[in-house]
Amino acid sequence: MKKKNIWILILLLAIAIIGFFIWQHYQSGSDLPEGIVSSNGRLELERFDIASLYPGRVEEMLVDEGDEVEKDQVLALLSSTQSESNLTAAKADEQRARQLVSQARAGRAQGEQTVARAEAEINARLEQQKVAKLELDNARQMRREGLISPAELDKRLSAYNGAVSAVQAARAARSEAVAALSRLDAQISEAQAGVEQAKAQESAAASANDDMSIRSPKSGRVEYQIAKVGSVIAAGNKVVSLLDTSDVFMNIFLPNEQMSSLEVGDEARIVLDGVDMVWPAEISYIAHEAQFTPKSVETQNEREKLMFKVKLKLPAETALKYKGLLKGGMTGMGYVRTNADTAWPENLKIKLAEPTSQPESQANTDPKLETTGQS
Description:
Blueprint: H1 2-26, E1 36-51, E2 56-61, E3 68-69, E4 74-78, H2 81-144, H3 150-210, E5 213-215, E6 220-225, E7 232-233, E8 238-254, H4 256-259, E9 267-272, E10 279-286, E11 291-292, E12 306-313, H5 316-321, E13 331-337
Antiparallel strand pairs: 1-8, 1-13, 2-4, 2-7, 3-6, 4-5, 6-8, 8-12, 9-10, 9-13, 10-12, 11-12
């Protein structure tokens, strides 16, 4: 009987201790000075998914879940056979277009020589015409003086008319040569346009080929490998899910009377369970409408069913410095000041130790919360 009573006493004592800690947890906000309010929450990291611009088969995954990656780091490789073929074809098209330009320019050089010869021919024919005209004028004078026969005059006139026709023919040849030059110039312009088009196609093919290497747009931590080696994905399909280790925040929920004086940009504090640090933060978002309180949020008054979400965000440089420690799902408390003139108490002044790979006390984490934080 005495043994049974001892066990009952131990059980009651354990219940009392548990009750005390629960009461202390619920009353943790009541010890705060006036002008500071708090609410519990869980740490979250912004998530972004990396997708492929083009369809293809996954040849290699270069990162594992949990890896830290840098901006422009290659995360995965897709089969590039088709894109490489397109790039080779585009280069061949550019080479053919450049050959057409060279041929057109060579033809123009010949055309310029033809024009030069035509101009020389015109000058020669003009000299012949000038001589023929002098001889004709001389023959006419001599005929008036009766020194030559009419047949001789007709001969000189025919020679002059032939010289005039030769000048006209030379000028016509020059006009045709100049017209040919214009056509060659048009061909050169068209060929050069073909080169530019081929270069654009080559650039697009090279870009598409490069895009078969899936790169990270920014630094972060790999959350999930969505695609697996050997799988065939369509354009726009997700390949890797990353967590932005510079965008760490906690959503807390406050009743109307506590959040009405808050503003975006106000200073805040975050204290994580099991981590002896006080983190700096600021209010980055305040909901415009109240919502039903999530089940994970503990309130001192069960009647407070509608609450306003307030997002507390850590500075990016702090989040990056402690990225090895900060994990999505870590539980803790968020603190804000309803009165900006209220000084932070000693236990809420910023306190950060040098970052280590893991805190001595394990924090309560939930991997499901390392997901996109919706404002």
